[in-house]
Structures are given as structure tokens and as C-alpha cells.
Specification:
This is F0F1-ATPase subunit Ca2+/Mg2+ transporter. This protein is mainly alpha-helical and 73 residues long. The protein is built from 2 helices and no strands. It has a domain of 50 residues. The chain is elongated, with a radius of gyration of 18 Å. It starts with 12 loop residues before the first helix and ends with a helix.
């Protein structure tokens, strides 16, 4: 047999929804946290790097959602 791999388990809609939420929140928390550290390190009063990191993290999370969930098999 050439295809000895087990069939892939299809996730439910709730599993996919939680995956989307976790990608978006993780991106915003990780990159927003990095921006906050840059703001703290440079002593920036207006938190510009935190905002840029949060928006960039949301964009990166959205990219991962499209890349992972947009695949059809």
C-alpha cells in the first residue's frame, strides 16, 4: 500500500473558532508585549510601540488564520 497514513480528523466548528481566537489573541499579546517592553525600555510616554505591536500582532494572527484555516483538503 502506498498510503499507510491514518485519515485526518476533521475538527468541529467550535475547534476552528477557538483556534482563530487563540491565533489573534496570541499575536496581539506577544507583539503588543514586545512593544510595551520597547516603550518601557525607551521610556516613551505615549505607548506608540505598544499600539504598533498590537496592530502588527493582530495582522500576523490574521495571516496565520488565513494560512491555516484557508487550506482545503
Amino acid at each position: 500500500m502506498t498510503n499507510d497514513q491514518p485519515p485526518k480528523r476533521q475538527g468541529s466548528g467550535a475547534d476552528q473558532g477557538w483556534a482563530v481566537i487563540s491565533y489573534l489573541l496570541a499575536g496581539m499579546l506577544i507583539w503588543g508585549g514586545a512593544g510595551w517592553l520597547i516603550d518601557w525600555w525607551l521610556d516613551v510616554p505615549n505607548h506608540l510601540a505598544t499600539f504598533i505591536g498590537g496592530v502588527g500582532g493582530a495582522g500576523a494572527g490574521l495571516y496565520l488564520v488565513v494560512k491555516k484555516m484557508g487550506q482545503s483538503e
